[in-house]
Amino acid sequence: MNTHRLFKNTGWFALPILVAVGLSGCNQAQSEINEPVIKPVKVVLVPELNFALVSSYLAQVDATDRAQLSFQVAGQISSIDVKMGEAISQGEILATLDPTDYQVALDAKQAEFDLAESQWQRAKQLFAKKLISADEFDRIETQFKAAKASLAQAKADLGYTQIIAPFDGVVSMTYQKPFEVVGAKQPILNLISSDDLDVTFTIPVTEVKAMTLEELKNQHFFVTLDSHRNQRIEARFREIAMQPDLDTNSYAAAVTIVKPNNINVLSGMSGQVHIQSEAKERAFSLPASAWISQQAASGKVWRFDPVTEQIHQIQLSTNESGAVTAGLQQGDQIVVAGAANLVEGQRVKLWTREGGI
């Protein structure tokens, strides 16, 4: 009787223990089910999509303004007032001839003119009173005009005994010395511009035909010198020949540079002219596994955010071959494997092989 009651009490005592164990097991299973699974994905890094084409051509530095200066009359050099390499200003006197003979000639022509003018003034009065014939008046007037022209020439010849700088520049060469006798238009010195320099080069006909003259003018030009290959000198378009050279099948062209302060750029130096075209966007291809959906000219993919480790859907434009033409930026990480069954904002992790990436 007591034994049966003990058995019954023990059974009732064990039941709560089994129930507690069962509930504990359910809670553990429920915890494992609620733990989010972070899916691994494989991504591709988008490279630089903008690129600029740079074409280079052999070139040579030349002066933008260049002049070989000479006296317009003959005579003995009185002075050469500049030296080779000297910087000069526009209007500065560079060299002078002995002006004595030309001053004497001017004085004589002045006297002849004064006499002819006096005779002409008197003849006008006489002709008005009909005291001389028309032929006589014409003769006197012709003499006056000739004397006036001779005086103007004598003044010009005296002025030609000086060489005046036509522009700011540098004396690149002197040919004569003081006290030497020179003829008219015999070279005395060379003058080149000091600040702006031309750089001449040739462009193949095929490349010129690929663009209009206006497009060529608007290209980005820069120059490098063989002596300073790492220094880039900005340039601007100056001119191009209207007809190509038949021997080289190319056009002669020139750009202008401002002489840099840190290097000595001289006429005759060799280098290269570079023409950099405008940056263009190139197409970028993604594997078929990257596309969530794809239509004729667009499609959608997942972009991975490395900061939040989440994915976000973006729409891209494509060309006829399916390559991406717009919507991507350099550095974007696009999911290319494991893209199936993902949802917006889902947290993922980058796929790695055992032992490393």
From TrEMBL:
Keywords, ordered alphabetically: Signal
Keyword Signal: yes
Domain Multidrug resistance protein MdtA-like barrel-sandwich hybrid: 67-173
Signal peptide: 1-29
Gene Ontology cellular component list: efflux pump complex
PROSITE patterns: PROKAR_LIPOPROTEIN
Pfam families on file: BSH_RND, HH_MFP_RND
GO molecular function: efflux transmembrane transporter activity
Domain Multidrug resistance protein MdtA-like alpha-helical hairpin: 100-161
Keyword Signal listed: yes
Family that this chain belongs to: Belongs to the membrane fusion protein (MFP) (TC 8.A.1) family.
PANTHER family (UniProt xref): EFFLUX RND TRANSPORTER PERIPLASMIC ADAPTOR SUBUNIT, MULTIDRUG RESISTANCE PROTEIN MDTA
NCBIfam families assigned to the protein according to its UniProt record, in alphabetical order: RND_mfp
Protein name: Efflux RND transporter periplasmic adaptor subunit
Lineage, broadest ranks: Bacteria, Pseudomonadati, Pseudomonadota, Gammaproteobacteria, Vibrionales
